[in-house]
Design a protein that fits this description.
Elements: E1 8-11, H1 12-24, E2 28-35, E3 38-43, E4 54-59, E5 62-67, H2 84-87, E6 91-100, E7 103-107, E8 116-121, H3 123-137, H4 144-150, E9 154-158, H5 169-172, E10 184-189, E11 195-200, H6 203-210, E12 215-216, H7 219-235, H8 245-250, H9 257-262, H10 270-274, E13 281-287, E14 293-300, E15 310-311, E16 314-315, H11 320-339, H12 349-352, H13 360-372
Parallel strand pairs: 2-8, 8-9, 9-10
Antiparallel strand pairs: 1-11, 1-12, 2-3, 4-5, 6-7, 6-14, 10-11, 13-14, 15-16
Length: 377
């Protein structure tokens, strides 16, 4: 947390002014809002669309909205959506081609129509955005749809002061404090008046805060924000095993625990759909009835799909056991070798939105117990 002379304090009306300034500058503001029985990311017309006074209770296979006895805005855990849904959308056109008398004409992806400002995303999702940047934008072959949507994006994170029961970002080093990757970081404070400690993380963030009514934060406010984030870290009840996960996964390839997971896993792919870093896709070609126009579309796919590993002659990973092992092995293990980081940010979505209630932290702990010769129960 920064010192009081560099952090600013804004009130609830200042939060509304921040959203208004973003709209005036041409951003499409995306933030948490109540939609279909969950706190989801949605385009905000104003700060009034934010989920004042709402939180969510989560457990393995469970997510339920809960009314609070205060007007907190950002005291909710991760919902079913993440930034990925907007920058790496579930379906996007890659190119189109038309037959003309002169030959074939082609067009590339449709240009990005919006410049996004993400408001109130938690630090784990900011970390996930960094992972997607490395995978989709910083490699030898940048993904054009992602890079077009990512360009000019503004990120305003809200530090977590009240984690959900399925959160484990502390053990992944991605939260609850915001440490980088943002333009503005907010810490919501409720004791002594509803207010937000705001600090900039980039020149664009500093310029934004300069246009929003506020005042320099005092030492007491900075201390209160620091304490609230530390208490959130201490309150997390889930964690990954305290050992190098790539080595654990590599040493567990033949573990009998994969059969136990397979007996419970539905291979529905929910975990990959809600994961903020899963990026797997497939392509689909379509033509019109005349054969004069064709398009190629990219849409999300999952390593839990039988056809995802299909080669000539059949699927490489035909069993549910092999597909779950592939997912967790890549997410926690080989992702490090490929991209220099873990593919998991500890948001807990895969736990809450798994219909079978499978908990990745407990599965990793069971693998660790098998690997060490202990009791996996």
């Amino acid at each position: 947390m920064e010192s009081g002379d560099t952090a600013r304090l804004i009130d609830v009306s200042g939060l509304g002014a921040l959203v208004d300034v973003l709209h005036e500058r041409g951003y499409t503001v995306v933030g948490p809002a109540l939609r279909d029985g969950a706190v989801q990311l949605a385009e905000l017309a104003s700060a009034d669309d934010l989920p004042y006074g709402w939180s969510a209770d989560t457990e393995a296979g469970r997510y339920r909205l809960r009314r609070r006895d205060d007007r907190a805005v950002f005291a909710h855990c991760a919902g079913p959506q993440s930034i990925k849904d907007f920058l790496h959308p579930p379906r996007a056109r890659l190119w189109a081609a038309d037959r003309t008398p002169e030959g074939m004409t082609t067009t590339g992806p449709e240009p990005a129509a919006k410049t996004f400002a993400f408001l109130g995303v938690h630090p784990c999702d900011v970390a996930a955005l960094g992972v997607l940047d490395r995978v989709l934008a910083q490699g030898r072959h940048p993904e054009p749809v992602y890079t077009a949507r990512r360009d000019g994006t503004l990120v305003i994170t809200a530090e977590c002061t009240e984690p959900g029961a399925t959160c484990f970002c502390t053990s992944m080093g991605t939260g609850p404090a915001a440490t980088g990757g943002f333009d503005v970081a907010l810490t919501e404070l409720l004791d002594g008046g509803h207010r937000f400690l705001a600090r900039s993380g980039s020149p664009a963030g500093a310029d934004l805060l300069a246009a929003v009514p506020g005042e320099p934060a005092g030492a007491a406010d900075v201390a209160a924000a620091t304490a609230a984030v530390r208490q959130a870290a201490a309150a997390m009840s889930r964690a990954m095993p305290d050992e190098p996960l790539p080595a654990l996964i590599a040493g567990s390839r033949e573990s009998p625990h994969w059969q136990d997971v397979a007996s419970r896993c539905l291979t529905c792919g929910n975990c990959t759909m809600v994961c903020p870093t899963c990026f797997c896709t497939t392509t689909e070609d379509v033509t019109d009835l005349t054969g004069e126009h064709t398009e190629r579309w990219r849409h999300w796919d999952s390593c839990f799909s039988v056809g995802f590993s299909y080669l000539h002659g059949g699927a490489v990973r035909a069993s549910g056991e092999s597909r779950y092992r592939q997912w967790i092995s890549h997410k926690l293990g080989t992702w490090h070798e490929q991209f220099g980081t873990s593919g998991c940010v500890g948001c807990g979505r895969c736990i809450a939105w798994c219909p079978a209630g499978i908990d990745i932290t407990r599965e990793a702990a069971a693998l660790s117990a098998h690997h060490d010769g202990g009791d996996p129960s």
